[in-house]
Amino acid sequence: MSGPLESSSRAEALEQEAARPAKRAKTTTQDDVLSQLCQSHEAGASLLSLPDGVLHHVLAQLSSPELNALGATSKYFRSLDKASGLPLTHRFAKEALVRILGDEKQAMRWRGYTWPQRLAIEETVTKFDRDQSDEKFTFKEMAGAMEGTTGVTEIKLDVPGPRILVSDQSTAESPILRWKLQLRGNNAAEFGVVPTDFTSLRDAAKALHKCHPNGSDERATGFSSAITVGSLLPARLPIMKGTIVELLVTPRELSFIITNPDDGAEMIWQNNSTISRPYKGPRELRLQLARNYTTPIKLAVTAWQRAAFDVLHTTPKAMPPTTAPAVAVPAAVAEPAAAVKQALTEAPAAALLLAPAN
């Protein structure tokens, strides 16, 4: 028979058990690698056992590949968040994008992609190939450029054109390529992609539309400004001083977003000379092309004399907005967050497949 003392101890134990916070259920299909992603080696605790405040602080610091890897570790991170109606990793990818860009409309500008995919696009910083591109371009360097940035804030061409500038990486090295350039000089320009056939670039091509087909009969493609004479690219669009051109290559498409200034003046030809007139067309133009290339491609821009471009994709996601208020993070929150982020960084990177968004 149990005595009164034993019954009292048992009652106290049951009361303490009831007072403990409920643990989140883990998936039973985690393998050793994915389990490592969930475990903090330094903190010695599972992400799923962290308090909500600490967990949210951790998720807010993760990049798109890290969020994607985390989503593969447990159903909890793929479950719908009640407040936003999004999967938890998608919610934090959206919050990160809005924090970077300061505007939800800007964060949604790439249509047909999920929030982690949009974050991956924004984190992509594609540099310029100064060795393979024409040596006549001049580059203004960023003072104290951080690792992972382009290091360039302005590109100019002061000699007669056309001259071609290409990206340092192709789709063979990076699944996503992105430039964001603002036109400041000569309005004549071409934007697009070119197959990585450097023989044609060196020997003959000085412009996108002059690149010879490669061995697979694949040609450069893109668009030219409406004022550019002689361009054979498939589209001509109005661009002017102050126009922002975004070029994006993903595994499924080539996309261009052209944003013209509200008070822009476009150049037109009249009596064999150019004159300016107020631009009254749509502020935003979009061009999407199917990616049918079987060989790697690079981003490319053709410029003529007195061309100038501000480089707007210089700053990566890792650099926080300068307007963000300083928040003191307790050590009890910061240390587990840093440890979990380190574990995710050391683990094998999960591929962020840019499949169409559901």
Automatic annotation (TrEMBL):
Residues 44-95 form the F-box domain. PROSITE patterns: FBOX. Pfam families: F-box (PF00646). Residues 1-28 are annotated as: Disordered. Residues 1-10 have a biased composition (Polar residues). InterPro entries: F-box-like_dom_sf, F-box_dom. CDD domains: F-box_SF (cd09917). This is F-box domain-containing protein. It comes from Tetrabaena socialis.
